[in-house]
User: Fold this.
Amino acid sequence: MISLIFPLYNERDNIAHYHQDLFPIVDGIGEATGETFEYVFVDDGSIDDTLQQITEIANYRNDCIVLVHEKNRGMGNAVKTGLIASKGELIITMDADLTFRPVDIAKLIERYRETEADCISGSPYLEKGLMEEVTPFRLLMSRSVNFLYRVLLGTGITCVSPIFRLYKRSVLTEMDITSKNFEINAEIISKLIINGKKVVEVPVPLLKRKHGNSKINVRKEVKNYIILLYKIFRTKYLHRDWV
Ligand SMILES: Nc1nc2c(ncn2[C@@H]2O[C@H](COP(=O)(O)OP(=O)(O)OP(=O)(O)O)[C@@H](O)[C@H]2O)c(=O)[nH]1
Ligand SMILES: [Mg+2]
Assistant:
């Protein structure tokens, strides 16, 4: 079974479209590949009716788990909560706004079957034209962050920041993940690379958010990414513990 983990924070407008944009697509992938899926939704103290909406869905589908943080604890913490409760031997992490397309879950699975890698990571950097919907400012920020990580990690991996990935469950459960926010994805992939795990990228488009509002706080995220770069430097080059 594959667990699909979705961190949710004030995503009512996206959840309203899951009956057409998410569930039928994943059902189709299940039929085509023979895989079974469980959805693990983690409501992170949303102040809109995300929790009610997702609970309603979970009440009529038998493949959804809903987990709740009473207060907002950040995207990284939500992914960790989802991981603990999930049961799949493979884990896929996804954005609730479906800016990485559910249809591309099939690509992650296909590549995993070919390579048996520890992590298959979706990257919109691998081919031209996969980020046409991304605004120039976000593109500049993303390119800069990813360039710095690549240099520091000494890796050919093109994209360290996105959430859209498939992992072997074991590589996540044996890792002590410390990030609370968006930088969790960069932390995980950095540790996999530093520890010599097999990471394979597949090209996937990154779309623009169609419903609801962005939650990213650019200043906070930039600060978190800089701290993470320092931690990578300390771990990789000074052989110190990751703290
Ligand atoms: N659990 C949790 N999830 C969050 C939080 N903030 C954002 N998210 C989720 O993390 C994912 C990414 O957040 P987004 O707001 O889409 O951030 P982004 O993709 O960088 O930016 P846009 O797509 O432009 O909005 C979405 O699934 C959000 O619901 C949070 O504080 N807690
Ligand atoms: Mg988004």
